[in-house]
Structures are given as structure tokens and as C-alpha cells.
From TrEMBL:
Keywords: Membrane, Transmembrane, Transmembrane helix. Coiled coil: none annotated. The keyword Translocase does not apply. It holds the Pfam family DUF716. Belongs to the TMEM45 family. It comes from Neotoma lepida (Desert woodrat). It comes from the Eukaryota. One of its GO terms (cellular component) is membrane. This is Uncharacterized protein.
Length: 266
């Protein structure tokens, strides 16, 4: 019994840093998962729509279901859906009660983080509003949607880059990678805005959007594990190395998804 008791005493200090790191994580599981899934689902649908448009233009014909009116209505419904869904996210963001004292430093920091999230939501809601305006007012160029998409990702990249105040190693790295993927998506979206009807650039933007959404979900499960007994050690550099591999594999997976979409659509 003595060796077992000694082993238990050795194990106890090893679990303390992980539990302390978990307590230091700000935010909640549903909010982060909602944002990641929203980004992924939008990118997935846009990739299907982009491939459909490309195939219809190549074949120079439309089916009885996939018509120009279908794409027009889809754009309007997308805009309305984005505004509605993001409004739900904003409501959920401010419906979470913070347990700290309102006068405490932790409470002030959490409130500032909420403002960060609100700014991101607002810019993505502007994409939905731009879609509605561009497809209802003929004088507005449709390319404004791409410009707003680029702006939204640039803003998100900037905010996530400055969103790592007081965070642990893995937490800060996860947000830095989210900033990196958002910046790449914004950059390619801006290049796509400067060009015209380039399906390769469109799919490249959407692959980066999918990557951003998938890695967002991955970071959510890392920072907010459902089972605390198998929580990640947020101060271990090996977990950073593992997340870099996950990021690369997720990016490869986005091309597989787009390839499957193309095969199914065509």
C-alpha cells in the first residue's frame, strides 16, 4: 500500500496546473462552438453555391430547380438568415451571467472581451445587410459583399490578435491561429474582390473559412472540455505542437470537403 500512496501523492501536484489553467479560461463552451459552427456551415453552403454557379455557367443552362431566380432568392435568404443568426449569438453573448463582482478587475476584463465578440458579430451581420441591399438595389455592385467579407475577417483577425490578455500558453496560441486563419481569409477575399468571377479564388476563400470554423470548434473543445478529468494542460508546449498538426490536417480536410461537393454537384 505504501508505493500506491506515494504514487497518489506524486500525481496530485501534476493535476493542479491543468485545473488552474481551466479556471483561468474566459468564455463559455456554447458561445465559442456557435461561432465556429456558424462559420463552417456558411462556408460549406457558399462552396456548394459557388460550384453550382460555376457549373451552370460552364454548361450555359439551368435546370428547372436551379435557376437565376433560385440564386437571387438564396442571396436574400442568406442575408436575412445571417442577421437573424448573428442576433441570436449577440443575445446569447450578453445573456451569460458573470459571477464576479461588477467592480472587480476580472469582471471588467470579461466585459471588454464581450465587446470584442460584439464587434466581430456586428461586422459579420453587415455582410448579411450588404447582401440584402446589393440584391434589392440594382445600382449597388454585388462585389460589395466580397469587400464586406474581407473587412469582417480583417477585423476579426485584428481583434483575436489582441484577445490574448492574461491567457495561458495554449489558449493564447489557439487565438493566434484563429487570427492567422482569419487574416488569410480576409486577404484572399480582398484579392477575390479585385478580380471578377474567379471560382478558384472563391473556393480558396471558402476553404480558409472552413478551416477557421473547424479550428474554432477544436479550440472550443480544448479550452472548455466536457469532461474535466481529460482536460488539456494549457501550459504544456507539446499541446501547442499538436494543435499545429491539427490545423494543417483540418486545412487538408477542407479540400477533401470541397472536392466531394464538386463531385456531387457535377
Amino acid at each position: 500500500m505504501e508505493p500506491l500512496q506515494g504514487l497518489q501523492r506524486v500525481r496530485e501536484p501534476l493535476s493542479k496546473p491543468a485545473s488552474a489553467a481551466i479556471k483561468a479560461v474566459m468564455g463559455d463552451f456554447p458561445g465559442h462552438l456557435f461561432a465556429g459552427m456558424l462559420c463552417f456551415v456558411i462556408a460549406l453552403w457558399w462552396s456548394i453555391k459557388s460550384i453550382l454557379k460555376h457549373v451552370c455557367k460552364q454548361q450555359k443552362k439551368y435546370s428547372s430547380l436551379i435557376t437565376k431566380e433560385f440564386f437571387f432568392r438564396a442571396e436574400l435568404l442568406e442575408g436575412i438568415g445571417m442577421i437573424g443568426t448573428i442576433s441570436i449569438g449577440i443575445i446569447g453573448l450578453y445573456s451569460v451571467r458573470v459571477k464576479q463582482n461588477p467592480s472587480s478587475e476580472e469582471f471588467q476584463l470579461v466585459r471588454l472581451m464581450h465587446w470584442h465578440h460584439l464587434a466581430i458579430y456586428v461586422f459579420f451581420a453587415l455582410i448579411g445587410g450588404t447582401k440584402i441591399l446589393c440584391f434589392t438595389i440594382s445600382s449597388l455592385p454585388v462585389s460589395l459583399v466580397k469587400l464586406m467579407l474581407s473587412n469582417a475577417f480583417f477585423v476579426e483577425a485584428f481583434i483575436f490578435y489582441n484577445h490574448t490578455q492574461g491567457r495561458s500558453l495554449v489558449d493564447a496560441f489557439g487565438h493566434q491561429m484563429l487570427s492567422f486563419t482569419a487574416f488569410l481569409a480576409g486577404l484572399v477575399a480582398f484579392i477575390d474582390f479585385l478580380t471578377k468571377n474567379n471560382v478558384v479564388l472563391e473556393l480558396l476563400v471558402l476553404s480558409l473559412m472552413m478551416l477557421h470554423g473547424m479550428f474554432f470548434c477544436k479550440v472550443t473543445f480544448v479550452l472548455f472540455p466536457r469532461n474535466k478529468d481529460y482536460a488539456w494542460d494549457l501550459s504544456d508546449h507539446r499541446n501547442v505542437l499538436f494543435l499545429t498538426v491539427c490545423l494543417c490536417l483540418y486545412y487538408a480536410l477542407t479540400y477533401v470537403i470541397i472536392g466531394i461537393n464538386y463531385a456531387l454537384v457535377t
